[in-house]
């Protein structure tokens, strides 16, 4: 198993140069040679919830699968999409043309949707574990794409629904101005209004260049809303919550609904500020003996960053991909549609998510967990941050098949 960096991609020309230098597969393992490309954010807003920890999770999947012992020669490459759909799509196209068998991770919904189109065009397997848009299993679904871990429907109904149920009837949204933020806001707004609530204001901000949220927070505070809905993620969420604390927003009684918060964000915010936040994840390292065992194996590779749900999804998805390849053989797996079809036929089973399955629209079906962030005095060990409030079964976590509009789903 080899890992090769493809970082600091500056444009389409650079993407081509990177892809052209993929290593030749050794003749001794030609029958069982594979290349997995981790396309992620290695330097920007989502680097803590994707990036190098996602690569480490793919490495862990290969080790747990026993790739070397089974005669597989697997190369992992990594590339930075810089949160730009054209760079992500160009990287995917060049990788697939150069022999990449699986592309995985991809935080950023706009980039994730662009790559889904390339995967269909090139007939190559694509597992998205870190973009939130539910369109990946809806109008944009295809036979080559699987969406692991979470999506906007899950987040809006779990976190948004819980806030409304606990009295948060009036909302003000701060929204990242691209596909993910807009869809998450729209779906949460529908949940709020469906429960009898109102939206009193909404402001979009330029993504990814915004770091100062003060003017937006002043608008939110002056709106009189009970809930500040943050339709953003990664470092943007961390900055928003820290600055909200500085402005005294939470102290004044306004509650914050971080609609997509990862454990890495809580770590960055600190329990003194994050305590009491309600959030939704589909994986927590300290959930049970199996999640703890997986994390213990992983941490030597990434000692300063515990796995988020998206990163754990890279582990789970890559492990299931290898099992499917093993079932149908490497030659057959050169067809993305063929290996994805096999992944849908086989139940999943791993230490991060347990025994689950992939639905016909490409949705990985797992429960969602509503957590509350602990007070500092309640946390007993490193990264022990969550108290479980509620579990939603997989079948109620994600949108029903009939409502999504996926062309793969038979009426």
Quick rundown:
It contains 16 helices and 16 strands. By secondary structure, it is of the alpha/beta class.
Commentary on this structure:
It is a single chain. The chain is an alpha/beta fold and about 400 residues long. Helix content is about 40%, strand content about 20%. It contains 16 helices and 16 strands. The longest helix has 20 residues, at about 310-330. Mean pLDDT is about 90; it is low at about 5-20 and about 25-30.
Largest sheet: 6 strands, parallel
Cα-atom Rg, whole angstroms?
20 Å
Terminal Cα span: 43 Å
CATH-defined superfamily of the largest domain:
Response regulator
The structural class is: alpha/beta
Q: How many strands appear in the DSSP assignment? A: 16
Strand order of the largest sheet: 1-3-2-4-5-6
Helix content: 40-55%
> With helices defined by DSSP (H or I, 4 residues minimum), what is the helix count?
16
Number of domains: 2
> How does CATH name the architecture of the largest domain?
3-Layer(aba) Sandwich
Query: What is the CATH domain class of the largest domain?
Result: Alpha Beta
Please give a handful of descriptors for the protein shown.
411 residues, Rossmann fold, single chain, 20% strand, alpha/beta
Set out the fold topology:
Blueprint: E1 2-6, H1 12-20, E2 33-40, H2 51-65, E3 73-80, H3 85-97, E4 102-105, H4 109-122, E5 125-128, E6 145-147, H5 152-165, E7 170-176, H6 179-194, E8 198-205, H7 214-223, E9 227-231, H8 235-246, E10 255-258, H9 263-269, H10 271-274, E11 278-281, H11 289-298, H12 309-328, H13 330-333, H14 336-345, E12 348-350, E13 354-358, E14 364-365, E15 368-373, E16 386-392, H15 394-397, H16 401-404
Parallel strand pairs: 1-3, 2-3, 2-4, 4-5, 5-6, 7-8, 7-9, 9-10
Antiparallel strand pairs: 11-15, 12-13, 13-14, 15-16
Helix pairs in contact: 1-3, 2-12, 3-4, 5-6, 8-9, 12-14
């Amino acid at each position: 198993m080899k890992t090769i960096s493809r970082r600091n991609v500056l444009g389409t020309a650079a993407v081509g140069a990177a892809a052209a230098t993929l290593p030749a597969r050794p003749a001794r393992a030609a029958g069982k040679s594979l290349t997995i490309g981790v396309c992620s954010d290695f330097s920007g807003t989502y680097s803590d919830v994707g990036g190098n920890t996602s690569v480490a999770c793919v490495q862990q999947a290969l080790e747990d699968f026993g790739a070397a012992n089974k005669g597989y020669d697997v190369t992992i490459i990594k590339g930075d999409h810089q949160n730009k759909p054209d760079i992500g799509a160009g990287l995917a196209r060049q990788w697939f043309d150069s022999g990449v068998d699986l592309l995985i991770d991809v935080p950023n919904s706009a980039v994730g949707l662009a790559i889904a189109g390339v995967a269909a065009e090139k007939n190559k397997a694509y597992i998205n574990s870190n973009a939130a848009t539910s369109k990946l299993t809806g109008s944009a679904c295809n036979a080559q794409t699987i969406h692991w871990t979470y999506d906007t429907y899950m987040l809006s109904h779990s976190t948004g629904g819980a806030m409304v149920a606990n009295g948060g009837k009036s909302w003000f949204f701060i929204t990242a101005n691209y596909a993910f933020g807009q869809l998450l806001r729209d779906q949460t707004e529908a949940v709020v209004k469906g429960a009898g609530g109102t939206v009193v204001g909404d402001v979009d901000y330029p993504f990814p260049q915004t770091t100062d949220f003060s003017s937006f927070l002043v608008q939110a505070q002056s709106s009189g809303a009970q809930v500040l809905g943050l339709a953003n993620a990664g470092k943007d969420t961390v900055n928003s919550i820290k600055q909200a604390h500085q402005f005294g927003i939470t102290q004044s009684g306004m509650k914050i609904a971080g609609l997509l918060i990862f454990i890495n964000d809580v770590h960055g915010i600190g329990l003194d500020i994050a305590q009491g936040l309600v959030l939704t994840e589909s994986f927590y390292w300290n959930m049970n003996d199996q999640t703890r065992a997986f994390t213990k194996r992983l941490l030597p590779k990434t000692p300063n960053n515990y796995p988020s749900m998206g990163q754990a999804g890279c582990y789970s998805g890559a492990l299931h991909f290898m099992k499917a390849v093993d079932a149908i053989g490497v030659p057959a797996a050169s067809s993305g549609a063929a290996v994805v079809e096999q992944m849908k036929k086989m139940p999943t089973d791993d230490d991060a998510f347990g025994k689950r399955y992939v639905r016909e629209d490409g949705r990985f079906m797992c429960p969602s967990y509503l957590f509350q962030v602990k007070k500092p005095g309640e946390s007993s060990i490193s990264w022990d941050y969550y108290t479980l409030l509620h579990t939603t079964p997989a079948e109620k976590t994600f949108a029903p098949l009939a409502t999504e509009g996926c062309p793969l789903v038979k009426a």
